[in-house]
Amino acid sequence: MNPLIEADDLVRIYETRRGLFGGASPVRAVDGVSLAVMPGETLGIVGESGSGKSTLGRMLLGIDPARAGEVRFSGSPMPKSGTAEWRALRAKMQLVYQDPLAALDRRLTIATQIGEPLEIHRLVQKEHRAARVAELMAAVGLRPDQAGRFPHELSGGQRQRAVIARALASRPKLLVCDEPVSALDVSIQAQVVNVLRDLQEQNGIAMVFISHDLKVVRNIADRVAVMYLGRIVEEASSDVIFQSPQHPYTSALISSVPVPGKPPEGRMILQGEPPNPADRPSGCAFHPRCPLARDICRTSVPALRQIGSGRTAACHVVAGETASVERLRKRA
Amino acid sequence: MSSANPNLVQLRDLNVTFDGVEVLHGIDLDVAKGEALGLVGESGCGKSVTWLAALGLLPGKAAVTGSVRVDGRELCGARRSALEEIRGGRIAMIFQDPSSSLNPVLSVGRQIIEALRIHRGLRGEAARAEALRLMDVVGIPAPSRRFDLYPHEFSGGQCQRLMIAMALAGEPDLLVADEPTTALDATIQAQILDLLNTLRAETGMALVFISHDLGAVSQVCERVCVMYAGRIVEEGTVAQLFSEARHPYTRGLFDAIPRIDGSRERLLAIPGTVPNPKHLPEGCSFSPRCPRAVDACGRVRPPLMTQDDGRRLACTRPVSAAARGEAKRRIPQGVMQ
């Protein structure tokens, strides 16, 4: 089976100015990221603020242009954003963000908004539109009597359901969800996560699920990529990565999740803060906070290497040069 | 919580009404000296309003009735000067968004000094030295170099540390932390929780930790109070609630949290949504969403009653009530023999 969406060595650079008259300094928000998502698969992307996970999500959809690298959807290169081909393709790939109130138009009823993609992409004839909207609303668990409501008349969870229904209207093959449940209460979060899982199982949609909440990602993703300062530092199947994280940053991230009823003793607490992307540390970007850092980490950037079947890590210590040299020798 | 250990703060029948809509319905709550109490619940349950009301921080349109006693002194309806003596001095509060609580046009050092001057009358070199010490205590690296920096030059986690430093300036007996780690990244959240634990161990101050994150609450608190729709529905020690939640809402909150270990199972969501305070359901407010509700739950509201094991519970059909009662009766017999 071929991947539905593939990204090759994506780079996105923002220019920021230092002070009012200062020169422009480049911020590499996404710095050489490659990934692939199979049809029907869910890839979780986790990382802290500034790790570039949201920028990556937008690049996968072609909303943010790449400075370098390429995105392929169903094997063909992504058309340039704004072109007719790209717009047509957008029906196949949709985005769900964190804040449903910002994503919805306050002056239109939710039924109108859920029906809009059908009109824009000319998918369903006018007389069948109402039926399709009702079907979509039922699929995400909205009641028929809520069709005529305006966004402010719904709760946060109901609004997010409306946004999901709208994203599903064009029968997409890929859904990029950027922190879709982060603004919701725990009990509602569980409802929306279940809706997403059910819809994915029923329709075979591939999903890129971006979140800082590891517990939610653990529950929904088949595979997880951990990002730190614009790069993927570890990637593995969800079961494997949460049970035996290899990269010290992944270990710290998982260890930092407070588990109800579990005392805080023995938790690994990282020192320091995520560095400023405009002022990237030399070598491995994680080395100033890393408990395992050695001399090599301060000078040379570790590459993402295979460390097992279907899992990769970028770390000199756990997936170091020596390991790969030995592998090359064996191959020779 | 016996009379031998007088409570630092005592809330009795605290009611809050906004524009005629009652949002807090008679909260009774004690905070003992030095204890860490968690207040959990979903948005709109009244966990923040309880403490904003207690400290007289709600806007004028809010009508607050009931009694708030700090060391026996009544605060509810007290004069502004009396309140200001308590606020910051005896009880300090920190909020979710530190950057909006700090003044953007004053250097952080000056802001900490301001708090020291108001609450402890420190001035000049003594104030500066104490401010630097506080910055060091909360883990700001190289405080003397960062004393004259402005809030925007600090990260979110560091701004929260600075807020904690300002809260500590008055040497409070109680720190009320309202969702202090919600806006922070996971690794920084772990650092701040660790800092709160250390500070409490060192200063002996009490802590009220308001959060929707049960995991974070279990890391810092000894006692937990679960609120729903403006009422306390269950209260007990962390061990009691986390090992054996009795109220179906508490149980539901635990079940809804995705697990980070173990297998990937379908999440157990609580159906429905939190009721609108304008149209609260009759009887128990949770009954329309409750899997254990019977007809009577929709008619009669269960009062908050102290149980045999010391916890308080407001439910007529609590989870595993029978099994628990038996187990409890059996154990003392075994001990006797």
From TrEMBL, chain A:
GO terms for cellular component: plasma membrane. InterPro entries: AAA+_ATPase, ABC_transp_ATP-bind, ABC_transporter-like_ATP-bd, ABC_transporter-like_CS, Oligopep_ABC_C, P-loop_NTPase. It holds the Pfam family oligo_HPY. Keywords: Amino-acid transport, ATP-binding, Nucleotide-binding, Plasmid, Transport. One of its GO terms (biological process) is peptide transport. It is a peripheral membrane protein. One of its GO terms (molecular function) is ATP hydrolysis activity. It is found in: Cell inner membrane. PANTHER family: D,D-DIPEPTIDE TRANSPORT ATP-BINDING PROTEIN DDPF-RELATED, TRANSPORT ATP-BINDING PROTEIN. Belongs to the ABC transporter superfamily. Probably part of a binding-protein-dependent transport system y4tOPQRS for a peptide. Probably responsible for energy coupling to the transport system. This is ABC-type oligopeptide transport system, ATPase component.
